[in-house]
């Protein structure tokens, strides 16, 4: 959803949120439309210690998708809170391309907002770095969709950056199909099941700690 803890700070990975909690409900499909709902609920660990949750709901209808996600992290030292992170993201996709994003992040008290809308063949984006217009089929860090594994650029829902990335297949393991996503200050490990279902995510933080997403059991 971006991306990782930097010292005592944390950044968003990706990011998007649980509709029932964040108050965003997917559009209700027409009676003649069939919809499919998928959910991912991850425990988030820092060096093996639970620090929060990241939940995703994706509702597919024909060639469109409605995505809501919610992340909440709390890092403590000797039971004293030293870092809080909250991220809520609402996205709409059509034909495999992002057509709308509305994401709000509170990073240890610092609040940012990223908003974007497709207008014709362009995508108008506003965020912490100002406004700009993107062209082509835009993708965010939608780890839930294996098709992102061929995208040359991904939109960071926290910062508004449209980042070049390189994604390559790594050696598979018992955890599933393994991919590495590399970019500017990004080193992300991803695992998918045989059917393309997202199973896990892991990254090393700037200070050498391990941030991991594991499916909530």
Would you give an account of this structure?
- This protein has 217 residues and is mainly beta.
In short:
The chain is mainly β and 217 residues long. It is 2% helix and 58% strand. A 14-stranded antiparallel beta sheet has the order 8-7-6-5-4-3-2-1-14-13-12-11-10-9.
Q: Characteristics of this structure?
A:
58% strand; 217 residues; mainly beta; 2% helix; disordered N terminus; 14-stranded antiparallel sheet; globular
Helicity level, as a percent range?
A: under 10%
Record the strand order, biggest sheet.
8-7-6-5-4-3-2-1-14-13-12-11-10-9
Shape: globular
Q: List the helices and strands in order.
A: HEEEEEEEEEEEEEE
Oligomer: single chain
Q: Give me the count of strands.
A: 14
Enumerate the spans where pLDDT stays under 50 for 5 or more consecutive residues. Answer: 1-32
Major pleated sheet = 14 strands, antiparallel
Radius of gyration (Å): 17 Å
For the record, give the distance between the C-alpha atoms at the N and C termini, rounded to a whole number: 21 Å
Separate helix tally = 1
Structural class: mainly beta
- Average predicted confidence as pLDDT: 84
Q: How big a fraction of the residues is strand? A: over 45%
List the topology elements.
Elements (H helix, E strand, L loop, with lengths): L18 H4 L12 E12 L2 E13 L2 E14 L2 E15 L2 E11 L2 E10 L2 E6 L2 E6 L17 E3 L6 E8 L7 E7 L2 E7 L5 E7 L5 E6 L2
Antiparallel strand pairs: 1-2, 1-14, 2-3, 3-4, 4-5, 5-6, 6-7, 7-8, 9-10, 10-11, 11-12, 12-13, 13-14
């Amino acid at each position: 959803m971006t991306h990782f803890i930097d010292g005592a700070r944390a950044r968003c990975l990706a990011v998007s949120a649980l509709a029932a909690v964040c108050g965003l409900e997917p559009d209700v499909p027409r009676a003649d439309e069939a919809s499919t709902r998928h959910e991912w609920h991850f425990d988030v660990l820092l060096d093996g210690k639970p620090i929060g949750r990241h939940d995703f709901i994706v509702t597919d209808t024909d060639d469109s998708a409605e995505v809501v996600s919610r992340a909440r992290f709390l890092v403590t030292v000797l039971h004293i809170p030293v870092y809080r992170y909250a991220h809520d993201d609402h996205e709409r996709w059509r034909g495999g391309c992002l057509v709308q994003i509305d994401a709000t992040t509170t990073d240890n008290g610092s609040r940012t907002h990223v908003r974007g809308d497709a207008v014709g063949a362009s995508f108008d984006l506003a965020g912490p770095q100002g406004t700009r217009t993107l062209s082509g089929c835009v993708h965010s860090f939608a780890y839930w969709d294996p098709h992102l594994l061929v995208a040359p650029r991904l939109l960071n829902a926290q910062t508004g950056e449209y980042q070049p990335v390189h994604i390559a297949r790594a050696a598979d393991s018992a955890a599933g199909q393994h991919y590495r996503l590399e970019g500017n200050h990004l080193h992300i490990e991803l695992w998918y099941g045989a059917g393309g279902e997202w199973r896990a995510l892991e990254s090393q933080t700037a200070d050498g700690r391990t941030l991991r997403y594991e499916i909530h059991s």
